[in-house]
Amino acid sequence: LGGASILEGFALLYTGLCVGQRVVLVQKGRLYRARGYHITIWCNVSGYQGPLQQDFEWSIFLPSAPEQKMQIISTKDSTFPYAVYSQPVQNGEIYVERVQGDSVLLHIKELQDRDAGEYECHTPNTDERFFGSYSAKTNLSVISDTLSAAMPRQVLTRAEGDLLELTCEVSKSTAQHTHLSVAWYLLQGDSQAMTILSLSEDFILTPGSSYTERFLSDVRLDKVGDTTYKLSIGRVRPSDQGQIYCEAVEWIQDPDGTWKDIARKQTEKTLLTVRSQDRDFQATTAAVENSLAEGKPLRVDCSVNAQNSQNRWFQVVWLFKGVEVARIDPQGVWTLKKEYEERAVLGQLQVAKESNEMYILKVYQVGLKDKGMYSCQVSEMEKVSTGFSIIQTKMSSGIDVIVKPMESKMQVSVLSSKTPIVEGDPLILHCEVSGATSPLSVNWWHLRKSIIGMEQDGMLRPGLSYQERSTNRDLWLEKVNSTMFTLVIYNTSATSDGGSYKCEVTELDRNWKQAKETSVSVSPLSLDLRATLKSRTAAVKLTQDFELFCQASAPYRITQVPVSITWQFQHNLGANGYQQLVKVMPSGIEWGADLPHFQRKTSVTKTTSSSTLLIHSATEQDAGRYRCEVKVWRSSSQQTGHPAMAAA
């Protein structure tokens, strides 16, 4: 018994799973449909038993008799329709389309006001017992068709590349909330119309498959007023030729949330003929002046000769010696290579698009580096959704630009602090520059040997023959200011430092060189230095003033070198020899410490090579021997205290 009860339970459970509940669903209403259009209402059944192909019966409850069912059509019984619907059913004006065995569509080809009412979809029972729903109802309202779309019939001829604009007037006055969609179509021959561009009921623009690449760039649809929609084709092509028309569709949102087209209107057609044009073009390069002096302005033109050029896109690439230097895109935006971009920022260079036929390259102050061959490469471009693509490219012939070097206005002069000089003294030469317009480098030469040079950045480069003297700091080159360069050679030698000196200056931007020479004499210090002492009074009496005169002489011009004269005195009774009375140096006077009484009564004067000693009121203490000692100094030896030469 226990086992039987368990099996019976499974059988009941199995039976419960298999037995379904019939459910009939009809399209949710209320539905609003426009008069005069083909409409459909769907109905399906589920959860049924019996054959997979179920039958359907459609009836209507008219607003004038809401309790009276009027039978329209059945998939099972041809005698089902009432008399008023028999003829429309027989004529195919009303029919049922079977979508699946358990799903159908009721079709009404041309909706009329009499078709408004409550529709019932009924499925005859095929189940073992009645279980579930066997019918469902929906309401249909018939509304007026207020949609209007208008465009005048016209015949147009356009040249290839011309602009085409067409307008479509679309309006509606439906009481219910509805949306509009607008589309433009092209009809060519007997083929199916192609979509050019459409604006959907949810405001999405979509190009036809043949116009995807031209969408937005060349083909546009704009709403320019409350009811006006404008199609623009920026550059028509032969493929655009044919009949163009506009179609407007009115859409309403059904209770199930879906949007349904309820009205549709097409305009008259515009017949468009597109004349093909010669797509060829020529690119030419020309210069206002192709032979010009350095520093003058240069203008090179790239001209494009093409039919209907104002409606075509061109890209121009400037080439200098075959290398790209600048580019102007179809929209006139220019880009430059790095070196030329820097020059453009400094206002030295410009590229520009004057028109669709003329492109210019300007160099405001041409330099030697700008001479050479200029040319331009012109590409016709097509605007596509991703930007531009090249249709064809042409290269111009080149033009050779000749730049004649500018004559240098730079002047160089060399000045010496003093000449001649005595060996051992420093040689100082000044190199002065005028008229230079760019940074300078300087080189000093002596008898064709490089002494020392200075680069633009101030770096010094001693010559090979002067390396040791530079290391010993006997050689120096100083940039005093932007135009003055001073050379100093210390401890000069009469045998090696005399002769011709040259200052060579280079203007770096143009590599211009100017040089100036000067001759320097370095006098040797001769051993034949003499001192002569004279007295203006032969016999001196007590209390009388007396004067002594000392004159230095040498084979060279002694006035060009520093000279010191020392006056010495030896008393008649003294045994200590000569003592310093006074020393007259180039830098001043030094009185002797051992003979102080002379300082109170003696005056001394000196010229470059002589000295006078005047002693007032002679006394017996002044009697004795007087002597003068002459010493010649180098400029550098004054600091060390060692004279170059002495004589007494």
UniProtKB/TrEMBL annotation:
Q: Output the Gene3D superfamilies linked to this UniProt entry.
A: Immunoglobulins
UniProt keywords (A-Z) are: Disulfide bond, Immunoglobulin domain, Membrane, Repeat, Signal, Transmembrane, Transmembrane helix
The superkingdom listed in its UniProt entry is Eukaryota
Q: Where in the cell is it found?
A: Membrane
Q: What is this protein called?
A: Ig-like domain-containing protein
Q: What PROSITE patterns is this protein classified in?
A: IG_LIKE
Enumerate the PANTHER family for this protein: IG-LIKE DOMAIN-CONTAINING PROTEIN (PTHR12207:SF32), V-SET AND TRANSMEMBRANE DOMAIN-CONTAINING PROTEIN (PTHR12207)
User: Organism, per UniProt?
Assistant: Pelodiscus sinensis
